[in-house]
Design goal:
The chain is of the alpha+beta class and about 400 residues long. It is built from six helices and 14 strands.
């Protein structure tokens, strides 16, 4: 067996081996760079992100509509409450007393107005009586005058004594006085009727201004008595309870707050250099520090703020004076959250968030042009109070008038 035709073994030198590794490393780096560049061109350059974002929501202040002394507190911090649920009770003693006085005043006013309307008929009858008396005195005066005219020519002939004529003249004077008195009474009765009619003209007993004013006073007292119980205007979670039992509170003083945790959003503060790509309606991905990056929230850009945070601060910067250093400004961008995701992973007001907006689609607008047609927030818990007050006023007025009425608040 011969080895003459077998090529000799060649050993790879360290230099050659290192060169080959460097080439491979360069190829890998080139591929990675190309892949990253491709990813940046197709995806990454359309992502706008910030970690300067915080959860926001409506913080509804619970305040009394009237002053009073706290006698009971029905809800505490972290409690979940429903709209219309009782939160705080005030001492009702003073309100009940005021309500009783207002009810008595309303009943008295209705009866007085009822008497004013009844006086119209009585005064009309008085006018008829005075008119009849005036007509009688005028007829009597006319008769006496006719007698005097007939008898005066007969005095000289002796057919009628002068004494009889004097008696007629005296009777005529008395008749004139009676006529003047009857006319005065007739005119006075007419003036009284006109005055009384001016108090009732164009109205009815139930719609008379005095009755409406007394009814308004009663409604005010009735509402005050019902506002002794302070209820939740919206559903949510109680926060910042500051009231204590026995405390005397005035109208408008904050007692506690309610935060509807199902109506939260995120205010993401993007740099002014990032606003070019942001449009209303773009999708966003969010993560909360409370849950970490394993939990993602889906959101939508709802609008961009009308100015930077510095403009609306308590002490805005005065860049036109002194030395100036440019500071990159930020504009708040509102991100709406998905209600189902909020229910599955509850958030709290003020939590930190990381926001990434997908800016592929830039067909939307940067400024909202549409006009809102629905309320931002509303409550109807006070509507029933007005209706119940109207029903109670109608009952009192009907009882004092003697027939059913239906009074309603003006406006």
């Amino acid at each position: 067996m011969t080895t003459a035709n077998v090529p000799p073994l060649t050993l790879e030198t360290p230099k050659t081996k290192r060169k080959r590794h460097l080439i491979l490393l360069g190829i890998v780096c080139l591929l990675v760079g190309l892949a990253y560049g491709l990813y940046w061109m197709l995806e990454l350059r359309f992502k706008v992100d910030t970690d300067n974002a915080y959860v926001q929501g409506n913080v509804v202040q619970v305040t009394p509509q009237i002053g009073g002394t706290i006698v009971a507190i029905e809800a505490d911090d972290t409690d979940s409450v429903k709209q219309g649920q009782m939160l705080v009770r005030l001492d009702p003693a003073d309100a009940r007393e005021a309500l009783d006085q207002a009810e008595a005043l309303l009943g008295e006013t209705v009866r007085e107005v009822r008497a004013i309307f009844a006086n119209n008929n009585a005064l009309a009858a008085t006018i008829e009586s005075c008119q009849a008396d005036l007509a009688r005195t005028e007829a009597e005066l006319a008769r006496l005058m006719a007698d005097l005219v007939r008898r005066e020519p007969l005095v000289d002939g002796g057919a009628v004594s002068r004494e009889e004529v004097q008696h007629l003249q005296t009777a005529i004077a008395k008749a004139r006085s009676a006529q003047t008195s009857a006319r005065a009474k007739f005119n006075e009765a007419r003036e009284q009727l006109a005055k009384n009619q001016s108090l009732t003209e164009g109205t009815t007993p139930e719609s008379h201004p005095r009755v409406l004013a007394a009814a308004s006073k009663y409604r005010e007292a009735w509402l005050a008595s019902k506002r002794m119980g302070i209820v939740a205007p919206v559903s949510g979670t109680i926060a910042r309870r500051s009231v204590q039992v026995g405390q005397r509170v005035a109208a408008g003083v904050p007692l506690m707050a309610i935060v509807p945790l199902d109506q939260l959003w995120v205010d993401a503060n993007f740099k002014e250099s990032q606003l070019e790509s942001l449009r209303i309606g773009q999708p966003a991905t969010l993560s909360a520090d409370a849950y970490g990056h394993r939990t993602e929230f889906k959101g939508t850009v709802a609008g961009l703020g009308a100015g930077t945070g510095a403009v609306f601060s308590l002490l805005p910067a005065q860049n036109a004076t002194g030395n100036w250093i440019k500071v990159v400004q930020r504009v708040p961008v509102r991100i709406l959250l998905d209600a189902q995701e909020l229910a599955a992973n509850p958030l709290r007001v003020g939590l930190s968030m990381e926001v990434t907006v997908d800016a592929h689609d830039r067909s939307g607008k940067a400024v909202t042009k549409s006009v809102r047609t629905v309320s931002v927030a509303s409550t109807n818990i006070f509507d029933d109070l007005d209706k119940a007050a109207d029903q109670r006023v109608n009952a009192i007025v009907s009882a004092n008038l003697g027939h059913p009425v239906n009074l309603k608040r003006a406006g």
